[in-house]
Design brief:
Two copies of one chain form a homodimer. With about 375 residues, the first copy, chain A, is an alpha/beta fold. The first copy, chain A, has two domains: about 140 residues, NAD(P)-binding Rossmann-like Domain (Rossmann fold, 3-Layer(aba) Sandwich); about 220 residues, Dihydrodipicolinate Reductase, domain 2 (2-Layer Sandwich). Chain A contains 13 helices and 14 strands. In chain A, the strands form three sheets. In chain A, strands 13-12-11-10-6-9-8-7-14 form a nine-stranded mixed beta sheet. In chain A, strand 1, helix 2 and strand 2 form a beta-alpha-beta unit. Chains A, B: It comes from Neobacillus pocheonensis.
Chain lengths: ~375, ~375
């Protein structure tokens, strides 16, 4: 549902690979798209109303390529009619609506409900998650992701009135570009308990929403984190560091993973070494006695794994293969993005889960303020 | 004044190089040191009371190698007697006492008043400062320093009762290890206007003071920053990134400086490129049309520049050469460290300059609480 340039890829893929499994249909409220589609894909039925499509009996599963606010509603309408649903990221704009989607989906356990977190299929991040899950770097003490490779010039925002508004998009870099990393961060390292943020709205771009985010995370067990993103760094940095009590992982440019594994946990080292002996280690210049280092290089595959998510989604329907990105996981990234917004609006640290009603009320204020400015 | 292991170096230096300029004297309240000194340096007068030494007429200049709390008082007593003063870092524990020192020093403009910020003599940081001061990376948008190479095992803290207590040291990593980087950060990038911090006290070490610090800086003009330090990362990271609207500097391990200089400012690029053309640049994989890159490697010289500060201090006295680290600069690092403590104690963002009386009252509370625990 919804057919933009990005979805061309998806459509071609389904046409070539998956027609044997599923019959394909497209729905879009823009009548111009009907003609384009009729020419390019004459066999594919077109609907201008998604409820009609869902009721037609033509479709077994849908993908929601529509504005973020609509994902939960369309997801529910599909599941209601026993149609499998793959929602695009983010799962929605505010957790209240995503919670409704999740709660409804829970009543339909036989249906497949997924989310397009294509970066979860990236072998690099799968490897990082495996190392953390295996306890190879021990208990996490600190996370740190600077992800400023989301450069967008003013021309990007000026493409359509829909972009970068509170009313239509519900936010900026947090809801449009960075949801991948926000999901990966919580997927690999877990959800923080508290969030404090410094968010700049329309800082380097003429937009109402945020183009710069600096966030301090507190995991509630002593561990802390920092998450930084923006759309105004044309020489963007992508550096993700995870410190554990038994090791450290540094991911550079989503390509190179450096893993340092301590021979003994840091706590054990601290408890059993004199300062004089510690100083000797550092003077010795070699850290081989302290930790081993492994470096793994990956091909860069940002944005190339939509197909892998589709395959995994289809496989779950067909043979029950486990979903890499269950739809219900989508609420975590939305909760984190909402907490980051809310902290900046209130000017203080907020606890998770945040007050959903308060968030929605504050979001609606932004929508109203924006109308006045326009 | 004060003679610990570290000062051996200083003493040897003065003995070998500077006796022609100055006569040397040592003062320490520990009588055991008198005997050691008499054996090693029989010609050097020893005083067990610093006021006696200052009044003796034997000394023209002093260095305060004493607990942090005493730096301002001893500095004032020296200057009062027209004796030049080089204070160790930090200038003091709280800004109120450092302000008194600065105010008194201002009444003695003919005397040399310096501070042992030896890292200011590091050619790497001098180069970084030069690039920023020249405007080569434009107006600063973000600063980010992860400096966790200050590993200290429990044995370090257990060496003496003086260490890592509120009463004697007045803090942990912020007042003992990280003042170098706190000074360099403000020296190169300026002072922030607001600070929010998440500080862990006795997190991974059995101490009353902080061993982990995560700080969010706001420069009041849109620019933000992050400063992270701790003493429990044996595989410590030292990565300093400065983003400007015309370039970016990344310093790795205090050894390698990578400078990216944009051909046009980011704002100009953003205003004059369509999204389609921007996408082409990224697909082209080469960023040569966007920026040039320079990499400069330096020898690691952490901790090796005390002598350079001493020489600069002496040169200022002798021939008026400009001071690299004027004593009055010391208050900035103390103000920043105080703001970081205070934000964590109050659980909210604080503005600089902070309320000095409030800080001192809160610090004194910590001193009292610590006594009860002991």
């Amino acid at each position: 549902m919804g057919w933009a340039r990005k979805e061309k890829l998806t459509l071609d893929f389904w046409q070539k690979e998956r027609l044997k499994i599923w019959y394909l249909a497209v729905c879009d409220s823009d009548p111009a798209k009907k003609d384009i589609l009729a020419e390019k894909y004459p066999d594919v039925p077109f609907y201008d109303n998604y409820i009609d499509m869902l009721a037609s009996g033509d479709v077994d599963a849908i993908i929601t390529c529509v504005p973020h606010y609509l994902h939960p509603k369309m997801g529910i309408e599909a599941l209601k009619r026993d149609i499998h649903a793959l929602v695009e990221k983010p799962a929605g704009v505010y957790t209240k609506q995503v919670r409704e989607l999740n709660e409804f989906a829970a009543t339909k356990p036989d249906l497949t409900f997924g989310i397009m977190f294509n970066q979860r299929t990236n072998p690099l991040y799968q490897k990082v998650k495996e190392i953390v899950d295996n306890g190879e770097i021990g208990k996490i003490r600190r996370t740190n992701w600077i992800i400023t490779t989301w450069w967008r010039p003013q021309g990007y925002y000026d493409q359509s009135a829909w972009r970068a508004t509170w009313e239509s998009e519900g936010g900026g870099v947090l809801v449009n570009q960075a949801p991948h990393q926000i999901d990966l961060l919580q997927w690999i390292c877990g959800m923080p308990k508290k969030v404090y943020s410094n968010v700049k709205y329309g800082y380097q771009r003429n937009i109402a929403v945020e183009d710069e985010v600096t966030t301090l995370l507190d995991y509630g067990n002593g561990a802390t984190g920092v998450f930084i993103t923006c759309t105004h760094d044309v020489m963007g940095t992508d550096r993700f560091e995870i410190l554990g009590d038994k090791g450290k992982i540094v991911v550079d440019e989503s390509k190179k993973v450096t893993i340092k594994r301590l021979h003994k946990s840091e706590s054990e080292m601290s408890d059993n070494i004199s300062w004089a002996d510690a100083a000797k280690i550092f003077r010795g210049a070699s850290m081989d006695d302290v930790y081993s280092e492994e470096v793994i290089e990956f091909e860069s595959v940002w944005g190339a794994q939509h197909l892998a998510v589709l395959e995994n989604f289809a496989a779950n329907i067909v043979d029950g293969s486990p979903l890499l990105a269950p739809g219900s996981d989508g609420i975590n990234g939305v909760a984190l993005a909402n907490a980051i917004h809310l902290s900046s609006w209130l000017g203080r640290e907020v606890e998770l889960p945040i007050d959903e009603e308060l968030y929605l009320a504050e979001l609606n204020k932004k929508v109203e303020e924006e109308k006045v400015i326009i």
